[in-house]
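Morning!

As promised:
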Amino acid sequence: MLINPNEILETIRMVKMEHLDIRTVTMGISLRDCSHPDIDIFNENIYEKITVNAKDLVRTTEEIQNLYGIPIINKRISVTPIAIVAESCKTSDFVSVARTMDKAAKEAGVDFIGGFSALVHKGATKGDLKLINSIPEALASTEKVCSSVNVATTKAGINMDAVGMMGDVIKKTARLTADRDGIGCAKLVVFANAPEDNPFMAGAFHGIGEPECVINVGVSGPGVVNAALRELENPNLTEISETIKKTAFKITRMGEMVGREVSRRLGVEFGILDLSLAPTPEIGDSVAAILEAMGLERCGTHGTTAALALLNDAVKKGGAMASSSVGGLSGAFIPVSEDAGMIEAVNVGALSLEKLEAMTCVCSVGLDMIAVPGDTPACTLSAIIADEMAIGMINKKTTAVRIIPAPGKKVGDSVEFGGLLGMAPIMPVSKFSSETFVKRGGRIPAPIQSLTN
Amino acid sequence: MTSSRFIITVIGSDRVGIVARITTVMANFNVNIVDISQTIMDGIFTMIMLAEAPEETFDHAAFQATMASEGKELGVEVKVQQEDVFRFMHRI
């Protein structure tokens, strides 16, 4: 037999016991040819474009799932940032566009649609402002629509006016979805250096440098890495790094094969493979568990940032060797509510917002799925965003904030979102004000790192 | 082009007739066994087969469903997976 039985059983164990999966197959669709001054015609155009392109997406991914016996958890769509394509519409807001996206996503049978987005890192156009102001109602009145706003890049600096606005937008979104613990905020990401080809939600959009239609694949497998590390007997950190690298390599190879087959069958270009360790609430399928497997008593204690840096780097190295199409975020995610180990670490007092912020310096995203008290002022949320954007800007990496000021909740409570979004304990924020700083507005200039030309 | 070969794994507690019943289903679907290996690991019956399906008329979904339900009756887990998934993961 060409393939060793142990290898076959290893693959089966990864899927069955260790929750290895293709987390998402995301179809990116350009809406640039849909623009029209009449918002109703524009909405018809985008509905048509999305549903025609994605009509076979779900069926095809399900066929591939059955053929290979590898679960494909989510099917998603990302579109060109709506602020760009709807800019010319003569209308006061873009809520109807979000509703049209929601309808198209339901027709296509996908789990989420991303791209209710604006890129305002250096400044906002009229269309950008309309989009940002539409976000709370758009997220409250749709189920599948995800929104993102890029407010900073290494090249442009941080648009602090936009950062200031986003604090208010997040508060309002929470208020409008107060009956569901502010779940609207779980579908809203504020970015620095947002990638144009990220398949993961809530931050996916189809960048303006992307082709007409593309398939991007997100693979996950914290459970597999966790299990591989726990099999090692008293390893040193070099051996740990080596094991993570090998495991990441195998996972990436599988993802690439699946992605290419999906794109071949759909006749759509294959874009990128994003190998991100994205945890789920399942026990063991946890990034915190990996860090603890390295020898930390609890995720969040001293040493956590170093352990996460090792993990993130080894994942990238393994992924980069396995595929020539690695892109998106590719690293480790640390969404608190979606990771049973992180939740536990918060509950026992090992993990704080401040430590999470430090961790985001060395992993692939940022402060993700963090619930804070409902009475947190908007300017404190903006200041949290500003800190995170600064980390992204200076370190030339993507950072993001997805934070939920859960209405009516205080420290000690928790919010339950269900499914992959999980459960979040309310984390305390600083009681000291950042208001004057945030309200100054203007722009934090691009750092010296941007002067590379 | 993808391969028409499958890895079939049967995992569960050992009992009389597993091989006979599984291979009968395969024969009914005109699926040929290219290679077969069988071991008992930690008391768990593990059979791995490399099988080849006829190109044209083969109904993969129906084969998979029938194999799974046969497995259920036998109290074992039967998986039918395209060979490429293992080849890609473990071979460069």
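Chain B has three helices and four strands.

Hope this helps with the figure draft.
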